[in-house]
Amino acid sequence: MKNVFKKPESLKDNPFTFCPGCHHGIVHRLIAEAIDALNIREKTIGVASVGCSVFMYDIFDVDVIEAPHGRAPAVATGIKRALPDRVVFSVQGDGDLAAIGTSEIVHAAGRGENITIIFLNNGVYGMTGGQMAPTTPLGRVTTTSPYGRTHTREGYPLKVCEMLNALEGPAFIARTTVYNPPNLYKAKKIIKRAFEIQLEGLGFSLVEVLCVCPTNWKVPPLKACEILENEVIPYYPLGVFREKTKKDII
């Protein structure tokens, strides 16, 4: 019988520790599938951030180094510059990347560092109790916005892709999601392309994946997907914001 589905070689046999309905596990599998498809497992180095993605070393069967909170792009930059033949990537949440790590992601992107960042945006601090994040949509109730986020009190949500797209340095910027099969297949191609950008030496690549957090959104997984589709995606439109080619690089 033909084997049409199997665990990626770049994933360890350890079970995921993510909450039921969380999209993080899906994205981690897509990353592993991209690493396998490009045959780069033996030269890939992951950088674990602080948050729900912190246990990368228990998930990916590649070398992984831990970074201080928000500093994954800086650590990845150091690794890539010291070992330019390696493929270096990080997985970061919205609190890690868009709050404490805002400076690191902006300057790594501005410099056009040849690294790949997978940005998981569920609009809430998932690991520490469901506090409001920089990307929390307007109206969303969290433990620190109990009456719903308003632009007058908490400010507008931060659009990371649009912000980084204003810089000259990035080579590839995209936003995708995995809440249904069509978008999952698109996300798979986009994540693989982000790694290809690095392999081609084109520079900084970032893929933002809109995810759900049923636990801290306090809704069932299917309801969380409906919220993502009807409320989150309209504010954070999907698509490829930038894709440089070799002729674009001076």
Question: What is the compact description of this entry?
Answer:
By secondary structure, the chain is α/β, with parallel strands linked by helices. The protein contains eight helices and nine strands. The chain has helices spanning 24-37, 72-82, 94-100, 102-111, 160-165, 181-199, 214-217, 221-235, and strands at residues 44-48, 63-66, 87-93, 116-121, 124-125, 131-132, 172-177, 205-210, 239-243.
Architecture, according to CATH?
Answer: 3-Layer(aba) Sandwich
Radius of gyration: 17 Å
Number of E-state strands: 9
Overall tally of domains: 1
Biggest beta sheet summary = 7 strands, mixed
Helix content, binned percent: 25-40%
- Elements, N to C (H/E): HEEHEHHEEEHEHEHHE
Secondary-structure class: alpha/beta
Topology of helices and strands:
Elements: H1 24-37, E1 44-48, E2 63-66, H2 72-82, E3 87-93, H3 94-100, H4 102-111, E4 116-121, E5 124-125, E6 131-132, H5 160-165, E7 172-177, H6 181-199, E8 205-210, H7 214-217, H8 221-235, E9 239-243
Parallel strand pairs: 1-2, 1-3, 3-4, 4-8, 7-8
Antiparallel strand pairs: 5-6, 7-9
Helix pairs in contact: 1-6, 3-4
